[in-house]
């Protein structure tokens, strides 16, 4: 009986990472397409659509499309394997959970769950598709955990159940905890119009959190109560490229200090056109900078670390309309994101080992 041929090689780091998934593909050809998609999605082409990737790699576009939409691999098996890899890297350590509400503008209404809704990437209502995503942040690295699409009430399909974004977040938290993940802090951007519900869910889960809120969030105060501000304190705002900028943080106290505390962060205490201001809500029991080294930097990962990286890989470049197929595309993109995080993790380990060896030699 002839032995099945081995899959063709691609890039070493891609082959090494994808080998973890080989057993999930019944056909060697499917496994090869899985690997080639990882190569294409980390390439320098402007758009990561299937036709563009097929052209760049010299593959048949229809065969690549068939792999994404019809090939008999199971998305849950792929996701479970990816989460298993992440659990091995985390080694049961507690991490910061980042919740990201991602929206992508899409034309027309032929794509499942596309509707006119709030698109956080644009900061306004537009026609598009929205998902709620979760990431693990530890040791300066981000690992993609899971995602759930938001199904607008007007676009529900037979068998669908309407769930708000906070409800999707609650499901994600419950599933991650059941899957053995432990997180000691949750970072989230405001879910449009549902801030109170999100806070209640995080409190019910007994989780520490920092949530970015909009400046127009209102509070009821008794006639005798006033709004107070603590003195500005300097801190260094750290960007993803390692650069720093001096910024300021102060607490806003509505009447008397309560369990929920409110913070204002700015890069300029004077009102000016260049002034950047962010408002945070947290249940951390002490000064926010004492609990989190760089609260601004962590919150900024929501916009620049997660969303930009994911879009670079091709999250929104799908040209398919059926959500079951879109979900398969998003899972492959999440796998590529995980692969890149693994590469940084390996590089980090090698660098730490080199420093350790150098220090050992100096001591000797």
UniProtKB/TrEMBL annotation:
Residue limits of the Transposase IS701-like DDE domain?
Answer: 36-222
InterPro entries attached here? IS701-like, IS701-like_DDE_dom, RNaseH-like_sf
> PANTHER family annotated for this entry?
TRANSPOSASE
Q: What is this protein called?
A: Transposase, putative
